[in-house]
Write a structure and sequence with these properties.
Elements (H helix, E strand, L loop, with lengths): L6 H10 L4 E7 L5 E7 L7 H4 L1 E4 L13 E6 L5 E2 L7 E9 L11 H15 L4 E13 L1 E6 L4 E6 L35 H13 L4 E6 L6 E6 L2 E2 H21 L3 E3 L13 E9 L2 E2 L11 H21 L5 H4 L12 E3 L6 E3 L11 E3 L8 H17 L17 H4 L9 H10 L2 H4 L6 H21 L3 H7 L3
Parallel strand pairs: 1-6, 16-17
Antiparallel strand pairs: 1-2, 3-4, 4-6, 5-6, 7-11, 7-12, 7-13, 7-14, 8-9, 10-11, 14-15, 14-18, 17-18
Helix pairs in contact: 3-5, 3-8, 4-5, 5-8, 6-8, 6-10, 10-12
Length: 474
């Protein structure tokens, strides 16, 4: 794909593809794309400096109506032809700017990530943070849910669901992945190979490099598509495209996708293991002679992440539903320890290669419902704090943690048991995030209050369907 660097490049790219419309996209505080479309003749080179106005008070987590006027300033470098519009449309991601001060808006997640990268460079520790996420998701055939004064329910269905082995399908041919039996089966058990392939090909057409795709452990269409690692800002932008593409390709095929952490009871949830490494001057910094072939810097980085993980998870596992997945003894790691090869540890050091360029660590607690800009940056800030303060990661845990005794488990630090606990951790431990003004106190306070008022408090008011089974006839 041609490199677009300037507004001039942008308009030449649009002309080449006969684009008559521009679709401007930006990310709300929680990590969902918003958009507005414009006839291309209404834009010129000045648009990339002056931006376009919109009502910021209608965006989740942003200012109230008394400060609603905001500017979205497009970043020409992010231009791509949107694959889901009927007519050729050039899509571009915007940064958010205050129209009076002309300063970047501190609650714009993309601005936070950009500041994180700038802080990394100013630290002189490294100049590049590479991120490699592994998002998982479920492909369903139908989802229904409702919550009223007299009714509260959800119902999901999938042709692959193990619960449908007895359904009359005229004929039912079987081949449904069993609970926890969906990892790597070939067709006909894996019915979504071609659909994932379509998703991958759309991503590739937009310049996103894909490493692999496959069925995941869960029944009912759990899947994973892995992007090749990229620089933090690039990956955060790509993660937005990733969700957009996966959902739209599914919809165009009569399917629906969710990135919820735990949509299926008593089966694996969807995580997003995140690989991270630091480089400087084109050279990797995490290879060395220490544990698992890591440098002291890498081990300090892990120490910082393990220390601050409860606060980081307020962004990386950001929903009430996230903690249905982070349950002791189930499928996701909840013990804040590090290990080589061991997938039961929260931080794993992959051992596939001795190549210094492959040395990295993997944080296994995040899930794909998160805002990538905030999650990747929070991880980076924890890593930098660990390096700057030489925080040791503790003793490696090279054994199956799921098999440890209660006495042994009691000695290990745990992830928060709920979103409420994660928010409390963030409230107590956020100075590492505000270094260099990367995260502002205003953003952190807004995040905590939004989550408490709109999720925790609202959930606390509503009876759960299972409560009727437990208590109705008491």
């Amino acid at each position: 794909m041609a490199k677009i660097k300037t507004p001039k490049d942008f308009f030449e790219f649009a002309k080449k593809h006969k684009a008559e419309m521009v679709d401007l996209k930006f990310t709300d505080l929680l990590g969902t794309w918003q958009h507005c479309s414009y006839p291309i003749e209404t834009w010129d080179g000045g648009t990339f400096k002056d931006g376009v106005g919109f009502d910021g008070s209608s965006i989740r987590g942003w200012q109230g109506i008394e400060m609603s006027d905001m500017l979205a300033v497009p970043d020409a470098r992010t231009a791509k032809i949107d694959p889901f519009f009927k007519e050729p449309t050039i899509s571009v991601i915007a940064d958010i700017v205050d129209p009076i001060t002309h300063e970047d808006y501190t609650r714009d997640p993309r601005h936070v990530a950009r500041k994180g990268v700038e802080y990394l460079k100013k630290s002189k520790i490294a100049d590049t943070c590479f991120i490699g996420p592994e998002p998982e998701f479920f492909i369903f055939d139908e989802v229904r849910y409702d919550q009223t004064q007299n009714r509260g329910f959800y119902q999901i269905d999938s042709v692959e669901g193990a619960w449908n082995t007895s359904r009359i399908e005229e004929p039912n041919l079987g081949y449904k992945p069993s609970y926890k039996g969906g990892y790597f089966p070939v067709s006909p058990t894996d019915t979504y190979h071609d659909l994932r392939g379509d998703m991958v090909n759309v991503m590739r057409s937009l310049g996103i490099v894909i490493e692999a795709h496959h069925h995941e452990v869960g029944t009912a269409g759990q899947s994973e598509i892995d992007m090749e690692f990229a620089e933090l800002m690039t990956m955060a932008d790509q993660f937005m495209w990733y969700k957009y593409i996966v959902k739209n390709v599914a919809r165009n095929n009569g399917k629906t996708v969710t990135f919820m952490a735990k949509p299926v009871f008593d089966d694996n949830g969807s995580g997003m293991h995140v690989h991270l490494s630091l480089w400087k001057g084109g050279k990797p910094l995490f290879a060395g002679n220490g544990f698992a072939g890591l440098s002291d810097m890498a081990l300090y980085a892990i120490g910082g992440l393990l220390k601050h993980a409860p606060a980081v998870l307020a962004f990386a596992a950001p929903t009430i539903n996230s903690y249905r997945r982070l349950v002791p003894g189930f499928e996701a790691p909840v013990n804040l320890v590090h290990s080589q090869r061991n997938r039961s540890a929260s931080v794993r050091i992959p051992m596939y290669s001795d190549n210094p360029k492959a040395k990295r660590f993997e944080f296994r607690c995040p899930d794909p419902s998160c805002n990538g800009y905030l999650t990747f940056t929070a991880m980076l800030m924890a890593v930098l704090d660990g390096i700057q303060n030489k925080i040791k990661p503790g003793t490696p845990m090279d054994k199956d943690i799921y098999e440890l005794s209660k006495k042994e488990l009691a000695k290990t630090k745990k992830v928060p048991a709920s979103l409420g606990e994660a928010l409390e951790a963030l409230e107590k431990d956020h100075k590492f995030l505000t270094q260099g003004n990367v995260f502002t106190d205003d953003l952190i306070e807004t995040w905590i209050s939004y989550k408490r008022e709109n999720e925790l408090d609202e959930m606390a008011l509503r009876p759960h369907p299972y409560e009727f089974e437990l208590y109705y006839d008491n």
